[in-house]
Every structure is written in structure tokens, then in C-alpha cells.
Amino acid sequence: MKSRIAALLIASSTMGLMSSAVHAQVAGAQPLGVSVEVSTAIVEGWSVKKSILNKPVVNDQGERVGVIHDIIVAPDHSVSFAIIAANQFLGVSHHDVAIPIEQLDFVGGKLVLAGATKSAIKALPEFQYAKMKATPKPRAEFEHH
């Protein structure tokens, strides 16, 4: 089941790549959006927002140990980490941690982090987002474009 989470997240992160691969780029004729084939895959697909984000994470005993706040997609387009809020009050996170996506599983419709406890999660180093520039770089400035 763990590979299913990773596979579904990877598939959702590569939809944009698939849409650009379906159509050859011709100057002045680049299509917007996605092809019919990719659109069908999206409709029959799986939503990270609805299925994972802000959902509780439990341990093997069904005890709540955190909440998924974010999914990190690495520069190589692989889904690498889930950001879990170890301590949350009224929707405000007080201690986020990064957990490798392979450690999460779906069991009985719940997100499970085997062997986790609230204290073990809180003992992990706090995750902090890297400081971003005020304005993102244009796509043309990236090496692969």
C-alpha cells in the first residue's frame, strides 16, 4: 500500500509533464491546458488535496499523531516528503516535521505512520521552509527550459 501512495502522488505531480509531452511545440501554436487523454486521466484520478492534505495521521494503534500539512515535490518531480504538524491547536501548527513519503501507508481508509507516537514526532527536528525570493524566477531562467 505504501507504494500506492507514492505512485499516486508521483502520477499527480507528473500530469503537467504528460500534457506537454502529448503535443509537439510549434512556435505560436503551443496549446494551453491538457489533451483529452490527460483530461480523462485527471477526472479518473486522485486528489492530494481531498485525500491527504489536512487529514489526520495515526499510528498502528489508531492514535492520532499529527496532521498532513504539505507534500514536498523534489526538483526531479518525485514526491519525497510529507510535512506533518506534530502539534496543532485550532488549525495553527506549532511543530512541523518532514517524514519520507515511503513511511506513510493507507490502512482502512486512514493515513498510518507505523511506530509513531506524538512524543516521537515532537522529538524530530522541526521542518522549516527555505526562504523564498519575493518574486519567483521566470520559467525561461531555469536550465532545463
UniProtKB/TrEMBL annotation:
<keyword id="KW-0732">Signal</keyword>
<dbReference type="InterPro" id="IPR027275">
    <property type="entry name" value="PRC-brl_dom"/>
</dbReference>
<protein>
    <submittedName>
        <fullName>PRC-barrel domain-containing protein</fullName>
    </submittedName>
</protein>
<dbReference type="InterPro" id="IPR011033">
    <property type="entry name" value="PRC_barrel-like_sf"/>
</dbReference>
<feature type="signal peptide">
    <location>
        <begin position="1"/>
        <end position="24"/>
    </location>
</feature>
<feature type="domain" description="PRC-barrel">
    <location>
        <begin position="51"/>
        <end position="113"/>
    </location>
</feature>
<dbReference type="Pfam" id="PF05239">
    <property type="entry name" value="PRC"/>
</dbReference>
